[in-house]
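Chain A, query sequence.
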Amino acid sequence: KSIRYGTLAKWSESLIENGYAGGTVNAYLSVANMYLDFIGQREYQMSERLDQTPEAQPELSRTEYLQLLHAARRLNKERDYLLIKLFGTVDLSVRELSKLTVEAAKAGKLVINTSRSKRIVRLPEILKKELLEFADRKGYESGPIFQTRDGRPMNRAYITRMIRAICPAAGVAEDKGSTRCLQKLYRATRAGLESNISLLVDQAHER
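Chain A, predicted structure.
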């Protein structure tokens, strides 16, 4: 709530620890710097920009993913369990999470509209069932299924903290407890399935 010498540097470190990419952190710092320039307090600006070279993303294995799910179940963290399963099995980004409403779960799909395209994100049947049961127990009849206790949308840092809190009980390294690692596992699994299908098509064509 106040900016002093070193405040932006500490904020930058906090954002990085919570899983934000270098480019995103630089964008946030740029806005803060513009604000400080506007109010005439340039001495508090942070001039250094973070290296935007992508870091090697830790690999979350399928076994570790299942360990996270089992640990969340044991700890009675149903919301965390569903979020882990969601990002591990559905092509959905954190910023699109608010699109996952009770209505979308009932339909079994989300319609994601952007300025350039429109895509359909389908929910696996078992996940759809679990989401609707969760919403029913929470008393959600419409609107977003996942939100903070005060009704706000969840951001990446909030979800990452939730997942990392489960990692010790799951026996999984905390740097693997993030939506990015779950999404990477989803993409790798999908690519493997598509590769197998392509191979079957080639074999059928050869025959």
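The CA atoms of residues 129 and 204 lie 36 Å apart. The beta strands are 109-113, 118-122.
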